[in-house]
Amino acid sequence: MYSTTDTYYFEFSTYLDGAPTDADSLPTGDLFAGGTDTTVNATITDVGTGLYTGSVSLSGRSIGDVCYVRISATVDGTVYNGVAGPFRVTSASNVTHMAGTSQTARDIGASVLISSGTGTGQLDVTSGVITAIANNMRGTDGANTTTPPTAAAIADAVFDEATSGHVSAGTFGKLFADVLEDTNTTIPGTVQSVGADVSDVAGDVDAVQTTVNSILVDTNELQTNQGNWLTATGFSTHSAADVWTVSTRTLSSFGTLVSDVATAVWSAVTRTLTAGGGGTGLTQQEVADALKLAPSAGSPASGSVNADLDTLISRTAAGVIVNTSGTTTTAGNMTTPIRRGDAYNTAAGNEFTVSSNGFPAAVWDDTVTGTLKILNAGTWTETGSVAVTHDGDETITGTIALTSAQTAALTAKAAGTKYEVEFSIGTDQRTIGGTWVIQDSDES
Q: Do 407 and 304 belong together in one domain?
């Protein structure tokens, strides 16, 4: 039962397919009294997966109201309703009368009587004192009429207690007796042993002091006779200034000095270089032959400087020639247009080719790769595939293939658009390019 000053607390759970599941949103609770919504909302708290607690104040309810809380929860899109309760509202307990007479709690306590006796529920009371308690406090032989001992008397009794009466292990008396035994026997012996060791150390210190005194005597003697070292037998009496004022200074036991060797070489009247072309020196042609610049007979040796220079001269004189799909134009313009939606490849015999000299095999070997780029609607687009071959000298050829999907993706341009074929090997790159006409499939 609850009074009008109480708060009603409750708990409930939500489930989905038999398992505790949180509601889509926090559930709500409304307090009903006598079947009528009081418009008082309960406070709902989420305390775990699918578990909620709630509380609602009963203030304003009437005594005798039958109340309950209607709970509404939405789980997985479905609304579920439940009820917490019911319960009845009663008045708060407040006893003010007994048998029609106004009474307080103190009045009732003052009227409680102790029944003296030894039976069940009785206490043996003598002159207002419970006998059992009195006996426990002062002993069974009556009250203690002697003067209690003082603190000093208790201390004297403890310290005057004979140690012979305390031999049980684990007692303080036994502990104190053991400590007393150790301090009377073991410790004095140890102190005497340490004293003997200290005496030995003192003797050693005296011996060291004697040795130090002897060393001091010797060093003091050195201080007094150091002047005698200057004239001692076997020692020079010359100063540095005396040594360097001597006019003639000869270094011995050093063999032939470098300066002597140089003097002997350059003082020779005739100096002849041998093995240099019969003694007449090298001619310009001999030097050229040695450097493989211009052999006296035949073409320059392969790999020589002259051979590489000849190649460069021939290229700059004739120019680099670019061939594209059956034309020998040096501009690199494609003469055959691309028709959008058509496929071009070697199997069909309609592939495009682009070739050029100026690619020495020493650098541009069979590992060269090629990439086709076409300026399509203002954007350079990488498309098609390029197979690269090299003639082993200096001419490189790129065979271009395009799928129908790739040509269909291009924008028709009758005036021609730009293209580039980029040849790459490692970090080296060279590009051949020109213009290329792109036609719609219905153009002739």
A: no
Instruction: Work out the end-to-end distance of the chain between its first and last CA atoms, rounded to an integer number of angstroms.
Output: 102
Quick one: CA dihedral 215, 218, 221, 223, positive or negative?
Answer: negative
Q: How far is CA 111 from CA 45, 99, 106, 127, 144, in A?
A: 49, 14, 9, 19, 35
For the stretch 203-237, what's the b/e string if a residue is b when 16 or more beta carbons lie within 10 angstroms of its beta carbon? eeeeeeeeeeeeeeeeeeeeeeeeeeeeeeeeeee
Q: Which domain holds residue 409?
A: 320-439
Residues near 124 by beta carbon (within 8 Å), at least 6 away in sequence: 116, 117, 118, 130, 131, 132
Judge contact between 116 and 122, C-beta under 8 A: yes
Dihedral angle sign, alpha carbons of residues 112, 114, 115, 121: positive
Report how far Cα 70 is from the mean position of its chain's Cα atoms: 55
Q: Are residue 402 and residue 302 in the same domain, yes or no?
A: no
> Which residues partner with 382 through β-bridges?
373
**Tens-digit pLDDT profile for residues 84-141:** 989 999 987 666 666 667 777 666 666 656 677 777 767 877 766 776 665 555 555 5
State the burial class of residue 402 (Cβ atoms within 10 Å of its Cβ: 0-12, 13-18, 19+): buried
Residue 45, token pair as written in the block: 């708290």
In a domain? residue 119: no
Q: How many residues does the chain have?
A: 444
Domain boundary among 36, 62, 90: 90
This prediction has a pTM of: 0.33
